Each structure stands twice: as C-alpha cells, then as structure tokens.
Amino acid sequence: MKTMIAAGTTLAALQRQSMLDPVDHRILLCHALGLTRTGLITQSERALTGDEAARFAALVDRRLAGEPVAYLIGHREFYGLDFRVGPAVLIPRPDTELLVELALERLAPRSRVLDMGTGSGAIAVALAHTRPDAQVTALDVSPAALDVARANATHNQATVRFLHSDWFTAVAGETFDLVVSNPPYIPDGDRHLSEGDLRFEPAGALTDGADGLSALRAIVAGAPDHLVPGGWLLMEHGYDQSAAVQALLGERGYTEVQSWHDLAGIARVTGGRVRLR
C-alpha cells in the first residue's frame, strides 16, 4: 500500500506519524523539501504543498521497500567529503576510512598510489584531496563506476588518473609506492547479500562469486610486480578474513604483515610490505 500524505500536513505532524527511522525521516524530508536540518526545526509548522507531499511520500515508499537512503538522496559523506552515489557503485562506509588513514600514514612526499576496484572513487579521491602531492591512479572494471568516480573527483577538486582495468592489466610495467584496495570479499551465498542495503548495491562489487578471497588472492599475487621495494599493500576485507589474508601475504613473502581494527574492534584492514631487494 502506498503512503498517502495530505497537502497541508505540517512538518511537526509528519514527524509524529512517521513510519521511518527518525534519522531516515529527517534526511529524506530535508532532501524532498530542499531544507537544512536547522530549517526543518525552525519551520516545524510549515504546511506541505501537494507536490511536496507527493515527493516525500514517494521517497518514504522507496525507503520502506529497503532502498538505501544514500541512493535516494544521491550522495554520501566519506572522509569529510561529499560523494555522489547510485546503483552503479557501493555506498562508501565509515569502516573504509581506516584504510584511508593507514594509507596516509605511509605516504611519503610525491608518492605514487594505486587504488584497485575504486567504485565511487572514495578512497582514491580522499587520498588525492588530502595529499595533492601524491600521484593517485584508480582502476575499475566497470565503466559505469568509473563515470561516477570521475564525477566525484571533479566535485571534490581532486586529481586522480582513472583507468578501465581488470585488476593490474592497465598498469602493466608501472610501479607504485603503495597499493590499496577494497575489493569484493563477501562469499557467494552469504546471507548478508540478501539483507539491508546490500540487496540494492552492485553484486559484482560485493562478492567474488566464490569463497570471498579470490579477488584478495589476485591482488596479493600481482602487487609485488607493481610495488617498489619496501612498498605497502593494504586491503580491506570481511570481519572474519584477517587470518586468511595474513596467510596469503605470508605465503607470498610479504614482511611486516599485520591487521588493523576499525572503531567496532573488528580486524578490517590487513597489509604487508614487499621485501627490500
């Protein structure tokens, strides 16, 4: 059944009768009416026009059907920057900011950085925006994702070289000081793929269609040919994959192999260094 909101309903009345999470309600109402959060508070007795009521009702129905708020409003904040998002790319998440922070700690002046599977460009753009001296290259196999990423780089005034590539193919013969990646790592058939926002996000950016480690294996195996001696590889992975990823790095001879925990205490990023030759 579709949500019906009558013209003339006040913002205060909408809040009282909302079927949405209060935060979702506020974000979608601000978006539908073009108001800031402060405006929503100061105009609590404002009455909706017919067009405003219909616009908000449509957003409510889509949210009740499970569509992510970020897709409904078209953007999401990440590392203090505004990113355009849509069904072609994953929604940037706070957990991934750990990967950005770890990368920044390892960036020497004018470092060359490679972001693999860039999606919305969140990692690459955050690095390039924070460290404009860095030479950042970002790869993705999806042309649609690259279009979104390029738009985000322009929007955030960050200089990033974007390449269409199946992993390392487009950077054959090139080397970097640091390689970062948030690749597909959810195992095929994992119940989380049919829950929450993940139902609406691009499956190819979430799962490798196998055991969740195939993309990580490809990156671990290929990175030594593209890292300078002593260069770092940093990868985000699933909540229960740190031991497996550490093992992959150890088998390939990486040094200083370790994992780092996110704010929830989950081992979220694992990395290592290519041996000094």
Features:
EC 2.1.1.297; alpha/beta; seven-stranded mixed beta sheet; 9 strands; RF_methyltr_PrmC; Rossmann fold; 11 helices; Release factor glutamine methyltransferase; single chain; 277 residues
Q: What is the CATH topology classification name of the largest domain?
A: Rossmann fold
Mean pLDDT, to the nearest integer, reads 93
What structural category characterises the helix and strand content? alpha/beta
Largest sheet, in brief, is: 7 strands, mixed
CATH C-level label of the largest domain: Alpha Beta
What value does the Rg take, in angstroms? 21 Å
**Estimated share of beta-strand residues:** 15-25%
SSE order = HHHHHEEHEHEHEEHHEHEE
Shape field = elongated
CATH superfamily of the largest domain: Vaccinia Virus protein VP39
- The main sheet orders its strands as 5-4-3-6-7-9-8
Topology of helices and strands:
Layout: H1 11-17, H2 22-33, H3 37-42, H4 50-64, H5 69-73, E1 75-78, E2 81-84, H6 97-105, E3 112-116, H7 122-130, E4 135-140, H8 143-155, E5 160-164, E6 176-181, H9 203-206, H10 214-222, E7 227-236, H11 242-251, E8 255-261, E9 267-273
Parallel strand pairs: 3-4, 3-6, 4-5, 6-7
Antiparallel strand pairs: 1-2, 7-9, 8-9
Family: Belongs to the protein N5-glutamine methyltransferase family. PrmC subfamily.
Protein name: Release factor glutamine methyltransferase
Binding site for S-adenosyl-L-methionine: 117-121, 140, 167, 182
